[in-house]
Each structure stands twice: as structure tokens, then as C-alpha cells.
Amino acid sequence: MLFRRFFILLCRNCDTRKMKATEQTLQQIERAIRKISEKFPKTDEATQMTDIHLRVTQESGELMAFDDDDNELNRCIVEQWIDNKDDDFYEQIVPVLRRCLDKQKQIIENMSILKPYSFVLEDDDKESIAELFVVDDDVVIIDPDLMEGLDKDLDDFLDKLLAD
Question: What is the mean pLDDT of the chain?
């Protein structure tokens, strides 16, 4: 019972407007990630790079990947995203991209790039929106969305627990 209350408190403020990615969308993103990884096959000599920059164009649904020198690594069209007019479009796609990257974790961690490196979401103006995935042997990154509001939820839970 205690765990259920804790879970309910944690999920109470969850955003229910998150984008529901179609199976086709997930497949398109996962295929793009695999194509990026093919550019860096596991070899003895690793490439020096700090980030793989993912840029999404809201109007065209285009997902593009670039290296640190702005060389294009891959591009694809995510049909579900074409002509999306939502003001919070980028915030909605972050969890979708993170889920796809996490699903491809084994492939991503074996790319021949010197660690640490990360996948970063950028807008059309090359402004960083979110760090999506970090590859590092010594660091574990917790999804910031998971931790958002945790202090308040834990305080409320403790107050309610002590009041009972």
C-alpha cells in the first residue's frame, strides 16, 4: 500500500499530452540511429567527437544527424512529424527520441567514438534543446524529466505519511 501511494504521488503530475509515437515513427527513428552507427563501426581506432547533433525540422518532419564539424551523418523523414504545429513539439519528441536511443543502447555504446560523447537534440537554429543520451563508462545520466518535481512529491508524501 505504501509503495502504491508513493507511485501515485510520483505519477500524479505526469504530462498526459505526450506525443504517442506510431510504430512507423519508432521504426524510422531506430533505422536512422542504426545508419548513424554504421558510420562508426567498431574498430581499434576511435573517432574523436563530443556530440552527435540531431536536428528536427518541425515543418518537414526531417530528422538530420551531424557530427561536431557539421558534417551530415544521416537524414530521414518522420512522417508523423510533418506539419506538426504544436508549440511544445520539441518537448514532445524528446521522450520519443530517448526511448529509441535507449533501445539502441548496445549499438550506440559500441560505436568507434572516443568516450564520452552524447546525442543532443537541436532546433533549426542549432540551439541545443536537450541532451538525449550520454555514452560514458563512468557516468550514468538520469532522465531529467523523471527527476522533475521529485523533491516536492517526496515532501508531500512524507507529510502525508507522518500525518497518518
Answer: 82
In which element (H, E) is residue 79 found?
A: none
Q: Write out the three cell numbers for 46.
A: 576511435
9 pLDDT band, cuts 50/70/90, is: very low
72 three-state secondary structure: strand
Q: What is the pLDDT of residues 44-64, one digit of tens each?
A: 677 888 899 999 998 899 999
Q: What's the CA angle centered on 24, arms 90 and 58, to 5 degrees?
A: 25
* Crossing angle for the helix pair 89-103 and 23-38, to the nearest 10 degrees: 60
The tally of CA atoms less than 13 A away on the side-chain side of residue 135 is 22
User: CA-based Rg of the chain, rounded to a whole angstrom?
Assistant: 18
Residue type (1 letter), 92: Q
CB-CB contact of 144 with 75 (8 Å): no
Q: How far apart are CA 100 and CA 33, in angstroms?
A: 8
More confident residue, 125 or 6: 125
CA dihedral (57, 62, 64, 70) in degrees, to 10, reads: -50
Three cell numbers written together for 65: 544527424
Of 110, 120, 112, the C-alpha closest to 66 is: 120
Strands 72-77 and 117-122 turn out to be unpaired
